[in-house]
Amino acid sequence: VEPSTQGHSVVFPDGFIWGAATASYQIEGAAREDGRGPSIWDTFARTPGRVADGHTGDVACDHYHRYREDVGLMAGLGLGVYRFSTAWPRIVPDGSGPVNPRGLDFYDKLVDELLGAGITPYVTLYHWDLPQNLEDRGGWANRDTAYRFGDYAQAVHARLGDRVRTWTTLNEPWVSAFLGYCSGVHAPGRQSEADAFKASHHLLLAHGLAAQALTGELALTLNLAPVVTPAQALDPAAEISDVDREAVDRIDALLNRQFIDPALRGTYPPEVLEIAARHGGLDHIKDGDLAIINQPIDLLGINYYNPCIVEAAPGTPANEAYPGSEGIGFASLDVPSTAMGWPIIPSGLSSLLVRLSQDYPEVGLIVTENGAAFDDVVVGDRVPDADRVAYLDGHLRAAHAAIEAGADLRGYLVWSLLDNFEWAEGYHLRFGIVRVDYGTQRRLLKDSALWYRGVIQRNGIA
Ligand code: PNW
C-alpha cells in the first residue's frame, strides 16, 4: 500500500470519526482532591529518579478545574469525539470497597459538558493509574486485581452508562505489563519477567470481566506495530531471511498477538506460552479464563507511533521489555525521528491496518492514538509546528491508503489534545496540538490544531 504523496487531496468516507485523546493522570492534576486516592503513578513520580526532573502529575494541565475551557477548545476545533480516561483512584480510592461519588461527579459533569457541545465521549476505564492500595497487594500480578477492575467498570457504567455509549476497557496492556513490571521504566517500576506475564494475563482477564459488565459499543485499545526488519521498514517488498523471519514472528507474538489473539480468538500464540512457561510458568492461566477474555467487542483501538524494527542478532541478551527476545536486535533506522527518538514511518500505519483487517475481519478498527512530540517554539501567539503537521498529514494519508486497500477503519483520534505529562519523560516532551504553558496554564492552539480543524471541516486533506 503506497500512501498518496503530500499534495494530493484525499477525502475520507462519510461518517468518518475525527477526534482527540488524553488520559486522566496526564492532564487532570488535582491529585489530592475530592477524595481521590493515590495511584501507582503518584507513587512512582514522587520517587526520586523515576521521572525526568522529578515531574509529577500533581497539577499537570489542571484539567480537573479547567475542563469547561478545554471542552470549549475541542468544540472550536470541531472534534466529533473526545477520548479521555476515568481515574480509578478517584472513583474507588482504595481500589476495592466503597465508591467515591465525588470522583464520579467530575466525569458526570465532563460528559454533560461534552454532550452539550455536540462532542461524543469515548471513555477509557484504565489508562495506567492503578490504585496504590491494589499495587500494595501485588498489583496486576495479583489475579484479584482483575475482579476489582470488573467492579470498578460496573460502578462507572452505572453512573455514566445513560450518556456514554462507547467504552474502552484498557489502554495498551502491553505497556502496563512489560514497561510496568518487566523493564520497570513505568509505574510501578518492578522488574520481573514472571510478574509481567502474570500482569499481562490478569489485564486481559480484567478486560473480559469489564466487557461483561458493560453495554454499548465496546473497545480494547492496544499499542500495535508492524514488526519488520530494517530493510522491510524502508521497502515492504524487501527479502527476508529465515532467521530474520523467526525474529520478526517472535516479537510480533509478544507485542501484538499476545493481546489480539486472546481478546478476539480466545487463544494465546504458542510462542508466548512457551516463553511465559520458561519465566515463572503458566499456573496463573486458569481453565475458562480465555473464554472470559474472548468477549465480543465492536472496535479494536490502535495506538500507532512507529514500526518495531528487529533482526536476528545471535548472542544478544533479551531486551528488557521483551522477555524471550534473546538473539534478537532492536534496530534503529537512519530516517527522521520525533523528539521522542521514534522514527517517522507513516507507511507502517497502512500496513498495520491492512494486516489487521485481513487477519481479524470481524472487528472494526479505529486509530485511538497517533501523534508526535517535537521541540515546539512559541513565536508571538503562534506555535509554527510544521513538523507535527507533516507527521499528521503523512499518517492520515497512510490511514486513507489503508481504507482504499480495504481496511475497515472507522475513525482517527490524535494524540494528544493538550501537551501533558509524558510519563517517564515528564513535561519535557510535548505531544499536544494545543500548547500548554505550565506556568500560567494558558492554552494556545498550535498550527497543527488549526490545520486539524480544517481536516475535520472538509473530512479530508486539501
Ligand atoms: C502511549 N513504547 O504510550 C500512551 O497511550 C500515551 O499515554 C502516551 O502519552 C503516548 O503513547 C506517547 O508516548 C506509549 O515504549 C508509551 O512502546 C511507550 C510505548 C508505547 C506507547
UniProtKB/TrEMBL annotation:
The keyword Hydrolase applies. PROSITE patterns: GLYCOSYL_HYDROL_F1_1, GLYCOSYL_HYDROL_F1_2. One of its GO terms (cellular component) is cytosol. The active site is at E172, E369. Substrate binds at Q26, H127, N171, Y305, W415, E422, W423. Its EC number is 3.2.1.21. One of its GO terms (biological process) is cellulose catabolic process. It holds the Pfam family Glyco_hydro_1. It comes from the Bacteria. It catalyses: Hydrolysis of terminal, non-reducing beta-D-glucosyl residues with release of beta-D-glucose. Keywords: Carbohydrate metabolism, Cellulose degradation, Glycosidase, Hydrolase, Polysaccharide degradation. GO terms for molecular function: beta-glucosidase activity. Belongs to the glycosyl hydrolase 1 family. This is Beta-glucosidase. It comes from Acrocarpospora macrocephala.
